[in-house]
Amino acid sequence: MAEAGEGTIKKDVVIVGAGPVGLFAVFELGLLGLECCVIDILDRPGGQCAELYPEKPILDIPSRLKVTGQELTDDLMKQIEPFSPVLHFNQMADSLTKLDNGHWRLTTDMGIVVEAPVVLIAGGGGSFTPKKPKIEGIEPFENKSLYYAVRQMEIFKGKNLLIAGGGDSALDWVLALNPEVESMHLVHRRAEFRAVQDTVDKMRELEANGKVTVHVADIPRVNGTDGQIESVTLKSKETGEDYDVECDTMLAFYGLTMKLGPIAEWGLNMDSNRVAVDTEKFETSEPGIFCIGDMCEYPGKLKLILSGFHESALMAHGAFHYARPDQKLKFQHTTSSSELQGKLA
Question: Model's pTM, two decimal places?
Fold first, then answer.
């Protein structure tokens, strides 16, 4: 075991995953007076809902005849506001260590350290991992001048940036980084973009003002030396001809795939590449570590958001006994408890 260190965030529960189930867990834990820190590898809350189908209607959320993934995420974020969770995005949950005091120390790949008596895995299908494009010679440039995500905005300040992609992530970062860079190019293989229309309109306004140059092209090659990009070769979709665009930094958004990631190394019992849990409190084989949502496995498991909401409630009651071992759990209904109504304002 190890001891806790200075500069560590200390909470009752550290949650891995900011999808709908992870966010609702903040609410259920908050009702019991437990404070949470949430870690997610994406740059925003919502998990699969926000990243893969933000505008696709979800039809099986109780009382909601129809709700999009983004609307559900936005509403869950409003619901947990009274509990003021600490949210860290662009962070992958990496190492997990048991401390001498019985708590857990979770460290992210970006160096954030959280100590908590309870760890909750709510990572959906796993960690989102960027899909690498089939571009000649990109390996030497990766994480040096070619990136698949924005982990630190200051990296791009004053750069001559080329962004590849046509979805929400690509265009969101076109808007966010445009004031910070020296020059900007946007490359997409089609003239149409998959992002929400308001974002597309704002990007087109930047284009009209000469602040971004849009190319309808493929990217066959990245050019440079010693990991530093000097130019990117484009193949025009209109003429079929190759031409070079001078730039020193590239952001590539070619979609995401999901992998279990470092969680697979945490020594938990697995079932079909998912985390095995009990159905009383959704605890894993390791005391104090719980798992809910698509990543957990048990007999009769259904991969539905509403199932994850149910799992959140039972998990919260199990987690309480680790976070408050000297207190008795008082079960209350939000409809009749003035204490809970006060918490929720």
Answer: 0.72
